[in-house]
Amino acid sequence: MAMVEVQEVRKVYRQGDVEVPALSGVSLAIDPGAFLALAGPSGSGKTTLLNLIGGLDVPDGGVITVDGRDLGTLSATALTEMRLHRIGFVFQAYNLIPVLTAVENAEYVMLLQGVPKRERRERAMAALDEVGLSGLSARRPAELSGGQQQRVAVARAVASNPAIVLADEPTANLDSATGEGLLAMMREMNEKKGVTFVFSTHDAMVMAAAHEVVRMKDGRLEPGGAQ
């Protein structure tokens, strides 16, 4: 069974009286353990598709199934629980909590999940160690570089043991060396732990690292866009 199934999904944004189609009948299947990039220029619909898969937005048509559950049939509470327990997010802007330390940020999703204090601290520290930041666990985001903050965001996403991690332009604010290191670390997690990763990107480096690239343009998958 696919980890993600997208069937004839449409999304329209409205600007006053004008309708702007963001996705026009997109269909896609993503296997468990995938390391996949949704690639395309700005306005291609890749971030919109990523947000719909993550249940952060609602399609105007079509069906999205994640980890065996049709998102359109879930109540608001059930969808929140799905995002909390089954989906990890890595945002372009990091979205770390400024007043929390690196380890506290890595613990945060587990705190919401109700994981006991000792267990969540152990799992958070293990995740920070995996991303090479165990020595910086007591630092707050302002005391970390952009690349280090993004690594904390990845640690937070994977420490909660999600079925899938969705990463929106994860290398956009990083220099090439830092971006390469981050991708290598995520690929290792994918290969060793079987975590499914889906990226939205226009970065050639991310496309080269992905096992599969799905190209998008003007809200559609390009013909022959999967590589």
TrEMBL record:
Gene3D superfamilies the UniProt entry points to: P-loop containing nucleotide triphosphate hydrolases
SUPFAM superfamilies named in the record: P-loop containing nucleoside triphosphate hydrolases
GO MF, one annotated term: ATP binding
Domain named ABC transporter: residues: 4-226
Superkingdom of origin: Bacteria
Keywords, alphabetical: ATP-binding, Nucleotide-binding, Transport
Name under which the protein is recorded: ABC transporter ATP-binding protein
Naturally occurring in which organism (per UniProt): Desulfoluna limicola
Taxonomic lineage of the native organism: Bacteria, Pseudomonadati, Thermodesulfobacteriota, Desulfobacteria, Desulfobacterales
